Amino acid sequence: MFISKEVEALYCQYKDNPFGNKKDRRIESWLEILSRLPSIHNTEVELINGVNIDFDIKDNDEIERLLLELIPWRKGPFRINDIFIDSEWDSAKKWKRFQKLNLDLDGKSILDVGSGNGYYAFRMVGMGADKVLCLEPNLVHVSQFSAINHFVNSEKIRMIPERLEESGLANSKFDVIFSMGLLYHQRNPFEHLNNLKDLLADNGKLVLETIISPKEYGIALEPSNGKYASMPNVHFVHTDNGCKSIFRNLSLQVHAESDIAVTNDDEQRSTKWMPFKSFESALNLQNKSLTIEGYPAPKRKFYLLGKAS
Fold it and tell me: What are the tens digits of pLDDT across the range 185-235?
C-alpha cells in the first residue's frame, strides 16, 4: 500500500496513464514522446547531490530532442548522461536552504503539494524518504516527471495531477508536508494551511516556503489586479509577522526558520530549456530593488512548523 488506502484509491485513476481522464490537446503528443524514450541498461542514479542519471546508450541526442519537446522546464536541473536540463529555476539553491533546517526525512511519508515536475521529490528520496506523494495540476510538469522517472524508475514517488482541494484527501496522515511557493497564490491562505495541518501526523512537520514582504506592510502586501513580479494570481504576500499570526491562529508552532533569501537571476532565468520571459521581466530595470509593478522585489523564507502541543 502506498501511504494509505485513500491514496492508493486516488492513484488508481492514474496508474496506467499519468494524465488520467484530464483534457488537454497536448496529451496525445506527450504520451507519444514518453513512448519513444528508449529502454536503458546499467543505470546508476544519484539523488543526494542532485538528480543525476547515467546509463549505457549510443544516442543521447535523440533523448535530448525528445526532452526539449516538453519545454518549459521550470524546476531542475537534471543531468541525464551528458544531457544537462538547465531549468529556469536552479532549484538546488532552494533545496540547500531547506537542508539548513536540519529536518530528517529518512523513512518518512511525504506530501508535496504543488510539486512541479518532481525535482524536489527526487531530492527527498535522496535524503531517505520512504514514500512521496506529489500533487501537481499542471500537466506539463506531469509529463516532465514521467520522463525523468522513466530513467530513475523510482517506486517511491507517485504524482497525481490534482489540486489539494480537489484531490479528496481527507483521512490520510503524512509525516512531512511541503508547500513551497504556494501561499501567495491562495485566495484563503488560512484555509490552505489548515487543510495541510489536517493531513499532518500528530508529530509531523510542515515545510512552508514563501515570499516575504517588508514589515511595513503589516500583515501582507495585497497586489492590485493580483499581479506581483509579473506573476498572475498573487493575492497576499505576507510579512514575517503576518505568517506567524496565521501560524498562531492555527496552533502551528515554528520549530525552525531560515534566513530571508533575495531572489536573483542566478537562481531564476531564461535558458534553452525555458526560453520564455523569466526573472529579468519581473524587476524594474531602473531599480532592481522593486518589481515591475513597483513593489519590493521578492525575498523568500522557509518555516518548519508542527502542531502545537
Answer: 999 999 999 999 999 999 999 999 999 999 999 999 999 999 999 999 999
Residue 240 maps to which CATH number?
3.40.50.150
> What kind and span of H or E run contains 132?
strand 131-135
Amino acid at 18: P
Domain range holding 175?
5-307
Alpha helices in the chain (DSSP H): 5-11, 27-36, 60-68, 91-99, 119-126, 139-152, 164-167, 189-198, 240-249
Phi, psi of 252 (to 5 degrees): -105, 130
This prediction has a pTM of: 0.98
User: Where residue 58 falls among pLDDT bands split at 50, 70, 90?
Assistant: confident
> What DSSP character marks residue 215?
G
Residue 217 gets which letter from DSSP? G
Provide the domain count of the chain: 1
Instruction: Tell me whether strands 252-257 and 237-238 are parallel, antiparallel or unpaired.
Output: unpaired
Q: What is residue 59's predicted lDDT score, i.e. its pLDDT? A: 82
Q: DSSP assignment, residue 18? A: T
Instruction: Round to whole Å and give the CA distance between 158 and 246.
Output: 30
